[in-house]
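Many introductory courses stop at the sequence. We go one step further.
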Amino acid sequence: MKALSLGPATGRVPRTAPQGVRRRVAGPSLRHVLSLVRKMLQQWGRRRRERAELARLDDRMLRDIGITRGDVWQEINKPFWRQ
């Protein structure tokens, strides 16, 4: 029976990473994911503040920017995660 070679044709042994070295996993890194979560939380906070400020505007100010009380009511009653 003939033996089959599983290594490269040159006869050299393929290099492997030293033991204890972690391989990088495909996909986003933890740092990237945490950065996205931070940006999302900042955006949600900004929406909450802007909607609260919109709710404090009087009718004259609303007319100046061209929106109605109904528009304000609709905007301030959206959940913070909706744009």
